[in-house]
Write a structure and sequence with these properties.
Chain A: Keywords: GPI-anchor biosynthesis, Membrane, Signal, Transmembrane, Transmembrane helix. Chain A: This is GPI-anchor transamidase. Chain A: InterPro entries: GPI_transamidase, Peptidase_C13. Chain A: Pathway: Glycolipid biosynthesis; glycosylphosphatidylinositol-anchor biosynthesis. The complex is a heterodimer of chains A (about 375) and B (about 575). Chain A is an alpha/beta fold and about 375 residues long. Chain A has a single domain, classed as Rossmann fold (3-Layer(aba) Sandwich). Helices cover about 25% and strands about 15% of the residues of chain A. Chain A contains ten helices and 13 strands. In chain A, the strands form three sheets. Chain A has a seven-stranded mixed sheet with strand order 3-2-1-4-8-9-12. Chain A has a three-stranded antiparallel sheet with strand order 5-6-7. In chain A, helix 2 links the parallel strand 1 and strand 2. The longest helix of chain A has 27 residues. Chain B is of the alpha/beta class. Chain B has four domains: about 90 residues, no CATH class; about 140 residues, Rossmann fold (3-Layer(aba) Sandwich); about 190 residues, no CATH class; about 35 residues. In chain B, about 45% of the residues lie in helices and about 15% in strands. Chain B is built from 15 helices and 16 strands. In chain B, the strands form four sheets. Chain B has a six-stranded mixed sheet with strand order 2-1-3-5-4-16, with helices on both faces. Chain B has a five-stranded mixed sheet with strand order 8-6-11-14-13, covered by helices on one side. In chain B, helix 12 packs parallel to helix 14. Chain B starts with a helix and ends with a helix. Chains A and B meet through helix 1, helix 3, helix 4 and strand 13 of A and helix 8, helix 9, helix 10, strand 13 and helix 11 of B.
Amino acid sequence: MGNTGQNHNIGIALIHMITCFVILYLSFNPAGCMSHEEQVNEFFQTGHTNNWAVLVDASRFWFNYRHHANVLSLYRSVKRLGIPDSQIILMVADDMACNPRNPRPATVFNNQNQHINVYGDDVEVDYRGYEVTVENFIRVLTGRLPESTPRSKRLLSDERSNVLVYMTGHGGDGFLKFQDAEEVSNVELADAFEQMWQKQRYHELFFMIDTCQAESMFQKFYSPNILAVASSRVGEDSLSHHVDPALGVYVIDRYTYYALEFLESVKLGSKKTMAQFFKVCPKHLCISTVSTRTDLFRRDVSQTLLTDFFGSVRNVELLTETSSLAKVNTSSRSGSDTCSKDSCKGTDRKPGRFSYPEQVPSILI
Amino acid sequence: MSMAEENTAPRAAKNIDAKEQDDECVMKEKNTQHTTALCFSVFFIIVGLPLWWKTTEVYRVSLPFSDIEHLSGKKIEYRIEINVIWAADQEKEKVDLSTLASHLSTVLEDKRGYNSSILSPVHRVAVREAESREVMAIQNAAQVSDLSPLFSTSQLNVYNVIITQMTQVLAQPVIAPSNNIFLPYNGAETSSLVDQIVQLLKDVVRSTTVSKTLDVARGQITQRPDKDTMRSFRYHSGFDVTFTLMVPEPDEVNVQWEIESGVKDYLQPLFTSLEKYTHFTITSQDGFACNSIYSGTSVPKVLYFVSLGGKPKKSENGFYYEEQHLPHVINPLESKLGSHASNSPSLNFITCIPPMNKSPLHIQDSKGKYVKSDAFLSPRWGGVMIYNIDKSLSNKTRPTVHLDMHRLMEVFVAQTRLLLNIQAHMTTNEVVVLSSGSSSLHQWEVAAWLRCRCVENLATSTSTLKSLAQLLEEIGNIVINDEIGKEVESAVASIKSSHSHLAIGNLEEAFVASRDALQASELAFFHPSLLELLYFPEDQKFAIYIPLFLPISIPVLTSTVQAIKWFRQHKKAKVE
């Protein structure tokens, strides 16, 4: 019960905040003069209209099973909270489920109890195998993809999109390794985000990274409206959570494990905030120090809902007025309203029969 | 002894000779050696260095940076021509027409809006008296729509304000389809008349929306979420429109809809009014009509056994969704709507038949009232309508129900207008907007839409070019090939031509030019070749060059230094 009361308070606080903002805006900006009549309910609840997620597992090979499980677990969570597959870009080597060393083929588990098969039957991988490259990642972010790229592989976000970028893999001070072949540097990443900002490709961006020395990846960011969280400080290692003796490998990383534990408790329409999310993995659980960056973000994280990034809570508007249109007389077409089965035959569309083409030309027989 | 001495002397001389010869030999050898070393280094400097410089140079076509800089600061001016026609003969002496003209233009000049440094309308006001036949026509008119052709203008930026006498037909201000505003004169002073005209013009020209659109396109969105700009799509060269029917219980009711004829009868006029400017591809998924309606491919997918998500609440006479539940209603549907083949944004329109045990199903607003239309929209996504079927039918076994396309389309046309930002909010009280009965847009609506989109495209393409220029400045590794150069040139030219067309009032030409500019600048910015070389920070270049150059440059450098030293010594020795 106490919880709902708290939610109510937060709701009131939010409305107050918006009101204050409007009043501030009106008093400082001469433009506000025009919008005197506008009421608080003239605004949508949030500043974004759609949510996107870019989930990247930058490593491959069997012993990196846990990274695979990390990214797939997060994929399941954001999908459960409402981001549709068409707005999730999943980049993963995808070599675990069918790995010859996998004793449970076609499954990926994130827990040694093997309760949830995170591979499931509805995972839509957009970039797999050797497509997971730095180049493709930067191309997806900046939108510089070849013309032939299908819609599902594009980040078609706009100035009203909230974007979640999750990365996991092996990293060092200032870089994240991609599949033992190349690495993305923090400078490159910061430049890519700046280009996204310049081209109005996001409204707010949440960057989450689980790797060693993860903090170094967001230190170079300079574009506005970015919120970042990393699993470890510079000089620290991020550790894995537990091993599954049946598989013989570690199945999940510590930070992602506790983050997921928190996300599991989040339901659609939840009022949990980002500030709560930042505290999910204290040092005694994570062993590494979780580090956050909020200076680029304009809102207060304790007022920012988790579902602004991890879910897709749409703004809706009730339609109060319909267009009045003159009724077109469609009696000839809709005459079937009253017709019986026999008299309707003319208007009914009959599906054509399908048949196989001849296998051997008839001339030969 | 002397013999010995005699003997030794020539030998010594011989020895010295031999030594000198040896020395000379060595000297010669060293000379060649050092000359070769010098030749090598000269070769490296003259051939190697330029070759390395040339081959590692980043190819870059020169771009019109100064033009881009100039355009990004340039003010957008659009011209509006206002013809005030005085047709209120009896009250003529009350208002002096020339005073009215000068007063009107000064008021319009003052009301330029807050961002007048980047955007300003230029008004040209002309006032004339109505001809006698026009006055006659107004007096004899049975309907306002009869008068429209009399004052019609095909130019999009010309507005006629016709001030008439109060008649039975004209008791309040009327906005007629072809840029005509009829204002019955109520005998007021010049200043209040001018205010009335300005107010009406604001509604028709939609100057506030234009400046709001510009702000959004320039990226100056404040944290204040604004409904109008958030709800509607920005300009795209094409839209995919999808109609979906959800029948959760096909075993209970046989639902039939003639969406093809519905679209043709009701929605097509709207799309036809905009077809010159943007392309709509209409598809539907309803299970049996698998062919596409106009063009493009349709997804032959049955959304049978699918219903809206969430749990509606029960009331005494049916079920209802509360407003805050609606966001969660759409999400589960989205995966079932099919993926889209094109990259254009999609407008999704969903009609949902509630299941029998949940009907009638309504939507309750925040005040606790049912929404009459049973419909809601989600910004930049589309709309959902709940279509309740008459419950008395459920007595029959599997009744056939034909959906009323008129009811459906009244909702979807309204939503389309909102999503495309065509809907104008009238701030003037009691104004009547003449409706033609079809969904086709009025001339003034098209004009206002074009004006907004033109300004938006100009701002977007200019800022795209500007950020491209800035990017090139910051990151030296970006290749600019001829194609990108061409696109940038054409974008700059189009922006310039759009600016000049807008300033002289050729709205349509200005829009077309701005559309070309938008396409060219997007193509240049998003060109895949911009990423052909990943962006190396400068220090990483050293990591590549050092292993390449050190093994060659160390021997060359040291031998050159030694050669120079040797030649200097040699010269000194010779001089001495």
